[in-house]
Amino acid sequence: MTPVVHICDGPEELNRRALRIFLDHTESSTPKTVVLSGGRTPEGFYQLLATQKKINWKSIHLFMGDERWVEPTHPYSNQRMIRENLLSKIPLAEENFHPIETGFPPDECARRYEEDMGRFFKEREPVFDLIYLGMGVDGHVLSIFPGSDALYERDRLVVAVRTDFHPPGWRITLTLSVVNMARCVVFLVAGTEKAETVRRVLKGSSEGLPAGLVRPQRGELLWLLDRQAGSLL
User: Which long-range contacts (CB under 8 A, 24 or more apart) does 195-199 make?
Assistant: First the structure.
């Protein structure tokens, strides 16, 4: 698996490329599964995705990659961001969206999301058609941070982790074992502050960086970078 890297002139091109990948991987009438990233970078992509009139949303199931242990209406909630920028604007049935619940203790939230995935995939391996990821300055992906025990989790599909990363607290996250089973994984990364980490992951030593452990076993790996994030490649 060799990553394919696209350096985009700006956010508009990054969003258009992310959209094109979505359309290419969901155009079939058979059910398709997509994992959405949280954070700020994908907001423009979700807004652009919401304008598309020819998507067959009946055949698409949207999952979440990770969530902070906060109320769904909290300013830091990934579910809130996804609903505001995408779900509120498209005809997706509520049963086709699979949010991470946060109304229980963190470990139970992780267990319940794992059970939801098990029901959907009918106890088969959860092979998602498409997973979108962001990357932090420290190389974290989803809510898997450098030094976390979750880096080496191989048995669980979803785990609860506690972090001091802003904002500190509990998070619920898919594990890398799930990510690496996907048919296509797409990084969306923007900003000068991430350029050195991008360089380390793609050209240098990625030891200790969670992003460097994203290596789909049989699928594609794509990096969409803006000019700033890709400036050291």
Answer: 195/228, 195/229, 195/230, 195/231, 195/232, 196/232, 197/135, 197/136, 197/137, 197/138, 197/139, 198/135, 198/223, 198/225, 198/229, 198/230, 198/232, 198/233, 199/232, 199/233
Per-residue pLDDT tens for 166-206? 888 999 999 999 999 999 999 999 999 999 999 999 997 88
Per-residue model confidence as pLDDT tens digits over 13-42:
999 999 999 999 998 878 999 999 999 999
DSSP 107-145: HHHHHHHHHHHHHHHTTS----SEEEE---TT--BTTB-
Report how far residue 103's alpha carbon sits from residue 71's, in angstroms, rounded to the nearest whole number.
7
| Segments making up each domain of the chain, as ranges | 4-202+213-226
Domain 4-202+213-226: state its class: alpha beta
